[in-house]
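Re-run with default settings, no changes from the original entry. Doing this only to confirm the output is reproducible before filing.
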Amino acid sequence: MNKKIVWLVLGLLALVLAVVFLAMAPHPLQSFDEFSADPRILSPLSEKIDLTGKKTLVFTWDDSGGSAGSRRYFDFRIYKGYQRYEPYIIFRQRLEPTVFSIEVDTALFEDGGKYTWSLAQSFMGQGISSEAYSLFTVTKK
């Protein structure tokens, strides 16, 4: 008799936990970005970028992550190579919370060079998000 009660209690506990976890999960029709404070980068996203004859390269992102009203700034960075560490930063700029693109002079990039660009956003009282990033190789002929 005691074993049946124990199994019944364990079964009910498992059911309650399943209901709690399902209630906490995002709705299947909503995207992950609605729950994330990480920015979503738009371009460039390609692995190879041809800068032949171009004076600038435009980097763009959207306003999908977090609350725009509480955003303090975007932290935009370009790294030489694929390592996102301080010594590899070749360009860095803090941008206003309503800016969603930046033009960078192509003189910054070398033919055949490998680069990473990243974007994070800072929120009032919530710290800074994770970096969204993309890797690319430059071609200049």
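Residues 25-36 have pLDDT under 50 and may be disordered. The chain has one domain: 33-139.
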